[in-house]
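Why do we care about 3D structure at all? Because function follows from shape, and shape follows, mostly, from sequence. That is the central idea of this module. The next example makes it concrete: a single protein chain, its amino acid sequence, and then its structure expressed as tokens.
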Amino acid sequence: MKISLDKTIRAMAIALDLAEISSVKDSIIIEDISNINFSKHNYLNHSKRTTYISLKLGEQLGLSEIFMKELYISSLLHDIGASNFLKESHITNTFILDHCKNGSQIIENFPIFSNISPVILYHHENFDGSGAMGLKENEIPLASQIIRLSDLVELLYNEEDPSFTQRAKIIEWVKLNANSIFSQNLVNVFLSIAEKDIFWFDIENISFMDFILDNISPKLDISLDLHQFEKIAYILASIIDNKSSFTAKHSRGIANLSWMVSQHIGYSEEKCLEMKIAGLLHDIGKLAIPNSILDKTGELTKDEFSIIKSHVYYTKIILDRIEDIKDISEWASNHHEKLDATGYPRKLENFTLSNEAKILCACDIYQALTEDRPYRNGLDSSMAFSILDGMTSEGLVCKNALAQLKGTLSENIF
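And the structure:
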């Protein structure tokens, strides 16, 4: 199986933007600069718009093809370290230091272009040395400086207002911060692209016109094999599980269970790995759910449960962006469907659900029941299977999938 690196990175960027949106719903202040509070910013297109601005700056600077590729990936994933810290309120240097270091460490495990780690590490440094790590001027990688300016311009931009009503204010703010947050040279480059109407029209319309970013993006004619994609899946699973104390190691647990069941059944090596990846990514949509709901110890309200249910919808939105993994996306996003069509989000019936989705459903319920949670201890295996047996009797969970799970665990010490 060959999987597009470009589409994978775009999907990851969507996931990271959703994570930042959920943090805003929890009223978390991500950064406060010059008395500008960004906590009310709409992050839905943050990565996409930041990347567009970065690439326009890089294009104007005449940077090399390889530099532009690294800038493209770094810009899309610049906040990859932030999502692990969004469950707490962080302001200025404390938050910046943690999320930059974390992002740098995460990206080191990226199977391709892992050399962009320093770019992520220093993308919040200020040109005058007043940033969290104290680097200044040419000590800061150029790509980091570009992302710094692009990131802040995007945060200043308000999607609810036409671009022509705010361009002058944004331009003036950038000019005022020359030789402090930004280098004078980079400010001059920004001013040269910001004087063109088309730049602001693109900024305004990039949310629903993908070709705007496509037209300027470097061509990443690179495919990942399934093992390389697995490494990315583990990165995302760590971000998902670290978002909430309730779900620590949950995705890895589902991945191990689904892989073991697949081996027990006799699936091919490739399919076993695909099932493991589906387990790693099945809850990626939870990045879109506010922690105030994920971490709630009491009973959820009807509205809160509706929000929780949306996580599988977002799982499919994110994974469908990677057209090469349609099966993995289908299995992962259907793990809350039930045989009697009472599941969510699509209320699919038994005959429309794949065996793989039914296996993931059984694994997910078993894993959730046996995990410790802050409000209860995990159940032992016999109690968990008793509950699952009841669910099969009610026509909710597939008997064959449950039997395969039981058979797997009877052969393994898990």
